[in-house]
Q: What sequence folds into this?
C-alpha cells in the first residue's frame, strides 16, 4: 500500500500568539503545505523529508512552538463519502489495529 502514500516530514506546532499566521510561517520556514493539526489550535506543517530539520528549526522564528516532528505518510487519494455506518466499522477496525502490541504507527487514507 505504500504506493498510495507520499513520504513526507510532519511537524505539529502551536502558535505563540493568536495573530500568528500559519500560511506565512509555512512559506517563510520552507514547508510545502500546512493544515489543521490533530489537537485544537495546532497546525500540521508538511515538508519534504529532506527539509524536516530545517523547517523545524525555522518555525520558532515565525512564531510557532514545535510540538512534534517526524517522518510520515500522507495519502495521495484520501477516501471520503463513507456513510456513518461504514465510518463506524472502519473506526472500530482501526482501533483494533492500534491496540495491537505489534503496531507502532498507522497511516490512513481517510479524508476529514
A:
Amino acid at each position: 500500500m505504500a504506493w498510495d502514500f507520499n513520504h513526507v516530514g510532519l511537524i505539529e506546532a502551536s502558535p505563540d500568539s493568536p495573530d500568528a499566521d500559519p500560511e506565512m510561517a509555512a512559506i517563510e520556514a520552507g514547508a510545502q503545505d500546512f493544515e489543521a493539526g490533530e489537537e485544537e489550535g495546532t497546525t500540521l506543517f508538511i515538508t519534504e523529508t529532506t527539509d524536516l530539520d530545517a523547517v523545524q528549526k525555522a518555525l520558532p522564528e515565525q512564531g510557532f512552538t514545535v510540538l512534534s516532528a517526524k517522518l510520515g505518510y500522507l495519502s495521495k487519494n484520501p477516501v471520503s463519502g463513507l456513510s456513518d455506518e461504514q465510518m463506524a466499522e472502519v473506526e472500530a477496525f482501526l482501533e483494533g489495529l492500534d491496540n495491537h502490541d505489534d503496531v507502532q504507527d498507522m497511516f490512513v487514507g481517510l479524508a476529514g
